[in-house]
Amino acid sequence: MTEQVDNTVCPLCQANNQCGVNAAEPCWCTKEKVPAELIEQVSDEYVNKSCICKACIEKFNLATANIKEVK
């Protein structure tokens, strides 16, 4: 039996991802560049089924920027 994925939940932190891809207005997620390294952290069952939330994207980008500054 296959369990349906809740596409309103971030696959990384399980918070509401605020995705409005099916809304009348374009969602923030359609304009956001999500790093491939972050997408790789999503388990296969959620890939292309549930958006990573903006907070997780921002946290990843900040951590990546900090690592680059240290080098």
The helix/strand class is: mainly alpha
| Mean of all residue-level pLDDT scores | 87
* Range of strand content: under 5%
Distance between the termini: 48 Å
Strand/helix succession: HH
Characterization of the model:
This protein has 71 residues and is mainly α. It has one domain. Helices cover 30% and strands 0% of the residues. It has 2 helices and no strands. The radius of gyration is 13 Å and the shape is globular.
Detail the topology: elements first, then pairings:
Blueprint: H1 36-39, H2 54-70
What are its keywords?
0% strand, globular, mainly alpha, 2 helices, 71 residues
How do you describe this structure in short?
With 71 residues, this protein is mainly α. 30% of the residues lie in helices and 0% in strands.
